[in-house]
Design brief:
Blueprint: E1 2-6, E2 9-13, H1 18-36, H2 38-44, E3 71-79, E4 88-94, E5 101-108, E6 113-120, E7 125-130, E8 133-138, E9 143-147
Parallel strand pairs: 3-9
Antiparallel strand pairs: 1-2, 3-6, 4-5, 4-7, 7-8
Length: 155
């Protein structure tokens, strides 16, 4: 007879019953089986367990040509358009979804603009807004070229 005290209760187990003994043996064997599988997982992942792991950033061995930047500078060019009167609006470059703004400035419509803006390298197209005019512009040769002409709807 084995007696346990768990969760505020006294439990007595009759170990002379073969079914109970079998269950106790399996429960006791389970942690051993689970812990013995860890070595196999390391071997299957082809990890070199003899190699020292660096935990300090300064000690990392990185190729000198590795580019740490996740953003790049792109040329943003706006082609001005002649107007009869002076028109100033907010010029904005944002993500296509509009949730991230990369550039904002007031701009006079009849003026050209050339500047550099920083974009995440993963970005391939942006939304350019000028007042109520919105255009999706694709980056080409590390440039964003914008004009005030509405997009063509010819078929």
């Amino acid at each position: 007879m084995i007696i346990f005290f768990t969760f505020g209760k006294l439990i007595a187990i009759d170990i002379s019953n073969p079914k109970i003994m079998k269950k106790l043996f399996l429960i006791a064997l389970l942690p051993v089986l689970l812990s013995s599988c860890k070595k196999d997982l390391i071997e299957k992942a082809n990890l070199d367990t003899t190699q020292k792991v660096t935990t300090e950033f300064k000690k990392l061995n990185v190729n000198e040509n590795f580019d740490w930047n996740s953003s790049s500078m792109v040329d943003f060019k706006v082609q001005g358009m002649q107007t009869l009167t002076t028109i100033n609006r907010t010029l904005k470059v944002s993500s296509v979804a509009g949730d991230v703004t990369y550039f904002v400035s007031t701009h006079q419509m009849d003026q050209n603009l050339e500047t550099k803006i920083s974009l995440p390298k993963i970005v391939k197209s942006v939304k350019v807004s000028y007042g109520t005019l919105e255009k999706e512009v694709t980056l080409s040769s590390n440039q964003i070229n914008f004009n005030f002409l509405p997009a063509s709807t010819e078929e």
